[in-house]
Design a protein that fits this description.
PA3496-like, single chain, 72 residues
């Protein structure tokens, strides 16, 4: 009977270890996913900022082009 109690105790400890490992792995996956989402969001923000900057600093039409358009 004593061996059965040891085996049961051992199984219980193994299950506890396994469950704690699963919890740790799940937490790590959540952290990794959060980091990936933040990097993706920042990449999108940077892309939009560069687009806006490109529009803001786009060269103005030359003086000759402006004069021609005013004549027509």
């Amino acid at each position: 009977m004593r061996n059965v109690e040891r085996i049961t105790s051992f199984k219980s400890e193994l299950l506890d270890i396994f469950m704690s490992m699963e919890v740790d792995e799940h937490a790590e996956r959540r952290r990794s996913a959060a980091q990936r989402n933040l990097r993706a969001r920042r990449g999108i923000e940077l892309h939009r900022e560069f687009q806006q900057l490109s529009r803001d600093i786009a060269p103005l039409p030359d003086a000759d082009e402006r004069q021609e358009s005013e004549l027509h």
